[in-house]
Structure formats: structure tokens, C-alpha cells
Please model this.
Amino acid sequence: MYRAEAENIIVVKDLVKKFGSFIANDHLSFEVKKGEIFGFLGANGAGKTTAIKILCGLSYPTSGKLNVGGFDIYKEREKIKKNIGYMSQKFSLYDDLTVFENIRFYAGIYGLRKKEIEERTKVLMEKLDMKEARDKLIRSIPLGWKQKLAFSVAIIHNPKIVFLDEPTGGVDPVTRRQFWDMIFEASRNGITVFVTTHYMDEAEYCDRVSIMVDGKIAALDTPENLKNHYAAVSMNEVFLKLARAKVN
Amino acid sequence: MFSIQVKHLTKQFATVKALDDISFNVGHGELFGFIGPDGAGKTTLFRILTTLLVPDEGTATVNSLDVVKDYRKIRQDIGYMPGKFSLYSDLSVEENLKFYATVFGTTVEENYDLIKDIYSQIEPFKKRKAGKLSGGMKQKLALSCALIHKPSVLILDEPTTGVDAVSRLEFWEMLKRLKESGITIVVATPYMDEASLCDRVALIQNGKIMTISTPSEVIKTYPYILYSVKSDDIYSLLKDLRLFPQVHSVFAFGQSAHVSFKDEHAAGEVLHKYLQAKGHSDVKVNPTQATIEDCFMELMNVK
Model:
């Protein structure tokens, strides 16, 4: 639920990112509240991935002020990385390692101690009902399981924010909803979720949604307000109204 | 005669039976969709139809040609878009198109009319390397390359996964126009709204076909009473609904939940009171028509 008076966990002011003369992010300004499920939408090529990479400390802005999890993007980049989780459709877990090896690897990278890793692995396997798959290679388990596991691994260290880049691409409708149950739970436990998706019904699950068009934020509000403002029945309609004229 | 005919097809990998006695037909000019979870067997089936894999049992024909004996002839007459982008990332848009035309023994100019609507949208970027295109543009290029030799059958494996909603809409508008020009199209998709656009849809799960019918027939066969329920907080709504005694299924649908009951006697009012007692505000409970997604999720959950 969006509450205007809640604490800010991400603050972006006039973010600009240029590649040569091409302006990928054109003066983006927005805030994300602690515990919010924030949907970051836009057509292919609108500039979403560029912005996410900057927020995760993976790329430098051309100019602008950014504060992620309480840390400054220019001076405290490494602290940001320690306090966030990340999961994308394109890369999440290592195909040639087992389920258990992946958990141990990521938990180790996030700085968890051996005992913590053992405990959390056990809990995780129970929760995901994947105890039999513990020693199976990731490449041999179904996509839906991979995505649920990848999400759990991305938050294994209880980060302040988790960035999800199209986490449910190609996944069947039942598994997608199970995935979103996990997102809801994480959000209720205080983890801020920053998610991009091409499934417009998923946009409706978000507390607020921003829509990027041609490097700028064209709209930012709750799904309810956006639908009212654009006289639309669904987020799909809102998106089409905003992005249709502009997409290549 | 059918455009595609599949009889008792079975394919076994080391530990998995990917296809288990599959049979179906696709008519000429039909837009035929496959829906199913990841690992259901869609890609394996498509690889057999495009002569890239040999079945263990059963037969399949495309344009009356056998996929095993006549594979060379079939390859000249089909277009294929695999699940992952598989054009040459380091060649430009233009170079990719020319390459595919040449490989199929034709020229870009010869069948340009067929791809004009699609290609004209990416033509301004024709010098750009294919790897640098956005998701939607990549799909348009891949579709152009799959059509450049004027195939009579087009096989598309999840062509719109990872593509934004606008480009998806445009892609399906293109497919409709292609269908109108007589091309048979077989497409796998995870998007239920796309399933509704097909002439017929097959649900495939664990290597078996569960059902084949038109989208409207699928909706008619939904067996339960369905309600659309809303309150101020979707997550706690879902949790409380799942605890409600006679409930058969609860699924999130955007800002509402779809709740189904097996019982003939509608439970709408009781549900309303139950949710209010649980502390929900702005409760709305309304009977609703099942969508194709409700139907497929019900079929997928039946075990």
C-alpha cells in the first residue's frame, strides 16, 4: 500500500544517462517508499534496464542525485551492493551447479556465515517444497522452480531492496501467481520490491507504477489512479495509451 | 487435407518423456495455439515439426510430407522462430535478412510484399547490429527472416516473451494479416490473451495434450461458479479467501481475486460477510464470467 508519509528508501533526482549523443535516461526523478512494491514499466528500449543498472551500482550516471537504501550512488556504491538483491529473467542461477550449491554460493557472496547458510537453506528448501531437488543441477529443474528459487536466493540476506528484472517471463499463469505470493510476503516483511514486467496484470499488484517512454517517466501513480486518469479499465490499456504512439 | 497432421507422437529423452502419445491436426490457414507450462513439451514438439528432432514413435506430416523421410523438402517450405533470439547478433538487420533470403534460394525483393508491414517498422534501423535491437524489434526482424522465403507454414515458439505490451499487440496484428493471406500458423505462448486470438488452442502439460478447442468453447466448459472479489489489500484478501471453507480455487487477477466454488448454491453473500468480519474494507463480491486463463489454470491444476 502506498503511503505518502512513509520513509523513502530510494531517492532519484534528475538522473541523466547518455551514451554518446543518445539520452537513455532523461532527467528521471522519483522516490520509492520503504516496503513498497514499485512497478517500473516501459516499452522495450525506453531506458528501464539502463536506470536499474545505475540504481544497483553497476553503471555510472552521467549526472543526477541518487540515494539507494540510504547510500549515495557516487560515494557509497559498494554499500549499496551489499544491501540489495537482484534477480533477472536472463540470468539468475548457475545452470551447472546444483540447487544447494547455488544457495551456498550466493549466500556466501552476500556475507552469510556457514551456520546461517545451513539454517536458511533448510528453511528455504522446506518452504519451496524442493527438498528432493537439492542436489539436482539447475539446468534440469523447471523454469518456474528456477524463478522461485532465484528470488529466494536474491533475498536470502534480507536486503533492504530487491530488484527484479522481468522475473516471470515465459512462466505459466499458476506459477506466476505463486511467485507473486512470494513478492507480497517479502514486501510485508519490509523488503522494498522494485520490479519490471511485461505482464500488465502484474502491474496491478504493485503499490505504484511508473511508465517510461523514450527515456522519460511519462506517468507515476497507483494503478487505481492511473486507470482513472487515463479512463482505462486495465493497466494494459493505460500502457497502450501511453506507449503506443512512441514505440519503434 | 491437413496442413499439419500428428499421430501418436512420442519422444523420450534420458530421464524424461517429453511427448507422450500426442495427436492433433491443423487445417490450412489456421492460427493454432499451444499453451502449457514450461517443460510441457511445446519446444520438443516444434523441433520435431520443423525436422530438427526425430520422434521415437508416431508420425508427423507437414503439407503431407513426412518429417523424417521428407525433411529436406519440408525445410524449404516452413518458417521457424525458435524460443530464443537466434539470428546473428553481429550482423546488421539488413545483413540478416539478406542472409536468410539467400540461404533459402530467394532474394529480399522477391517476397518483400509479404514482410513489408513488419520490416518497414525496423527498416530505419537496418544498419544497426541485430544484437543491439530492443526486444520488440528483434522479434520483428526474426519474423521477417522466417517469412522471407514465403513459407506456407509458420512455427513460432513463444515469439512475444520479453516483448512489451505494445509490440505484442502489433505482432499479433501482423499474425492475423499473415493468416488472412493463407499461411498456417502454429504458435506457443504463455500469454492467455494471445490464446484467445487463436482459431483453436491446445493445452499441453507433461507431454500430453489435455484439450483442444476454440477459445469460446474452452470458456463454455468452465465447470464452477466464479466470483470476482476485491478489498483494500490484495495479499491479505488472497490469504483469507484461501481459508474460506467451501472454496475450490483462489487466484489473483490484477486487483481482484477470482474465487471458484463447486457448490451450486452461490456463496456470494456469505463470503462478503466473512471478509468484512476479517477486517477487510471496500469489499466487493460479484459473480463473473470465466476467462480463458481461469479455464486453463483449472485444467492445469487438475491432477
Summary: Chain A touches chain B at residues 1, 42-45, 89, 142-144, 166, 169-175, 177, 180-181, 184-185, 187-188, 198, 200-201, 204-205, 223-224, 234-236, 239-240, 243-244, 247-248 (CB under 8 Å). The longest strand of chain A covers residues 8-19. The first helix of chain A runs from residue 48 to 55. The two ends of chain A are 34 Å apart (CA to CA).
